[in-house]
## 1
Amino acid sequence: PEQHDNSAALNQLTAPMAGGLVSQRDFVVASMYEKEPATGIVWFTAASIDYPRKPETKEYVRSEERTDVIQ
């Protein structure tokens, strides 16, 4: 993964499931986290992105993800 301070861009690949009935999925995700010093609250978000260094291929199904967490 490419990482910069509190953010990263990474490529994830799932394994085939159900004996190959569900094909592999390919995710390209950017994530970022931040902790507020005064409250200790941690913010985390991740979302699928178009990323020139990881172009879509016909080998895998490109999937999308969106995650937001506040703790």
## 2
Amino acid sequence: IKTSPFQVGERVMIKSGDLRKLVGTIESLTKGDEEESMASIRLETSNIPSPVNIPLAFLERIFKLGDEVRV
């Protein structure tokens, strides 16, 4: 997705919906208009089958100590 703020392999947290506050890694992105673009997320929790498809609007990028960040 050329206009997506996310990339495959990034760690994200779900900020809305039933799965909010869960963390995972983006496995793939599906192109659509702004409201229909989706990400396939491999969750870090083991009690929910992964991957799950989540709208990009429900995601926020997260970082952990030691991650390299460019601004």
## 3
Amino acid sequence: EHLRKRCASTNSLERLNQEIKRRTNVARIYPSRESLLRVVASLCEHISEKWAGRCYLPAQELVAALQPVAA
């Protein structure tokens, strides 16, 4: 049941969008579209590195949940 909640949840995406909004509101004006993309790409890379060691959906639990129930 808890795997279903994690699969259906968009909390991580919402958090990413919130962080992008917070970081881009600091400067407000960017000299070019490329500079804005660099800021967002840098933030995404940083968050990806933070999540690299984490396991959001454990593989063993996911496999066990997908196995048919023996009657």
